[in-house]
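[SOLVED] Need 3D model of a two-part complex

Original post:
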Amino acid sequence: MGEVKHLVVAKFKEGVAVEETLQAMAQLVSTMDMVKSFEWGAEMLGEEMLRQGFTHVFIMTFNNGEDLASYLNHPSHTDFIGTFQAALENALVFDFPSVVIKPPA
Amino acid sequence: MGEVKHLVVAKFKEGVAVEETLQAMAQLVSTMDMVKSFEWGAEMLGEEMLRQGFTHVFIMTFNNGEDLASYLNHPSHTDFIGTFQAALENALVFDFPSVVIKPPA
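Solution:
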């Protein structure tokens, strides 16, 4: 099995300081060597029906399932989860082994 | 603005031939030069509550929003969407400019 991805699709609560949460997440990841790469984004097309109200996506990549597990179970991550969940109205979490059909050039 | 990602989180209907749909999607993407990269995955941890019933994730990457739009509006894509939607019980679609916090090594 190759790379494993940790996907979080989130809807922030109204009035929450999204930027602060994003900065805290970036800081967390910077201290976690087992996180191979990390990107995020905010919905751009605004098709409310298709995105089901979600506003942000976070994607982390790990070399394998063991690295993902060590991240999920790390005290810094579990501490962060409390703050993160308090800022969210809804979240979808999806972990999957990445099957690459068309690799980046 | 840099790369743009097209994320689809899907739940297939019971009894649907998932492999055939995946093959049709791989074939579609292979003919679409504007799709820079494509990967997919099936949920591995089985935490039903966190994944909200979704079973598969598809992530396509484009160089920019224009390439994404040309893919979404391409007749081969709109044809495929009909078949794809018929196989799905639920789908979440999320388009976003990728903000890379930690680039792949």
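Edit: The first strand of chain B starts at residue 4 and ends at 12.
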